[in-house]
Structures are given as structure tokens and as C-alpha cells.
Amino acid sequence: MTVITLCGVYSLLFALFHAGFWKMFGWSKDFANFSDIEAFSLDRRIMHILNIMLLCCFAGVALACFLFPADLLGTRFGLAFMSFWAIFWLVRAALQPVFLGGGKPLLSIPMTALFLVGALLFALPVFNGLF
Question: How many domains are contained in the chain?
Fold first, then answer.
């Protein structure tokens, strides 16, 4: 299994994880009364939209990794794509303790480590392509 395939699996797992947010955070109750959209605060509506879009991004990255591994490894665009996602996961790891570290460090530390794994996975093809 190549590192690109691992990046695809990683992204697919995060897409599935984000698909579970409605159940994990009780968001499905929000949709029970969806006919009354004004009942939702703007912040809650934006969180739903952002989560759906992140889910789509992760699924798209997974598809790109599964369908175009040679392009991601062998082109400048592919290396730029992989660089973007390496930086994405690195920034996500840095933001975890800032925004979510105080309340539940037992959860925040493994999540930060998981995001650093993503940064490393996506960075490996970039470093291999540069040297």
C-alpha cells in the first residue's frame, strides 16, 4: 500500500468521522424541527454547513488519492495538492490544543497526534518528490 493510498484511507476515515457528528453531538435533534429554520442560531447553521463541506473535501481528497496516485506523486500540481493537505493537517494539529485542549486533555492529545500523523502522511510524498 503506497503512502498515497494511506492518505486516501486517512481522508476517507475523516469523512466518515465527520458524517457521524450529527449523532455524536446530537445534531440530528436539530433537524427534527427543521421546518422552523429561525429556531437555529446562525452559528449552528454555519457549523452544519462547514461540517458538510469538510466531509465533501475529505471525500474528494480520498477519491483523488485512490484514482490519481501517479498524478499526485509525479506532477507539480500533485505535490502542491499534497503540500496543501500536509499544511492543513499541521495547522489543524496546532489549533487543537488552542481551542479544545483545556477542557478534555485526554481527548485533545490523541486528536493532536492523529492530526500530526495526517501532516506526516501528506508531507512524505512531497519530501520524496523534492529530493
Answer: 1
The distance from CA 6 to its chain's CA centroid, rounded to whole angstroms, is 14
pTM over 0.85: yes
The runs of H, that is alpha helices, within 33-104 are 42-67, 69-74, 76-100
Q: What digits encode the pLDDT tens for the residues 109-131?
A: 899 999 999 999 999 999 986 65
Please give the radius of gyration of the chain, using alpha carbons only, rounded to the nearest integer: 17
- Say how many CA atoms lie within 13 Å of 123 toward its Cβ: 11
Which residue matches cell numbers 499541521? 90
Structural domain boundaries, residue 65: 3-130
- List of the chain residues with pLDDT < 50: none
Give me the residue label for grid cell 503512502. Answer: 3
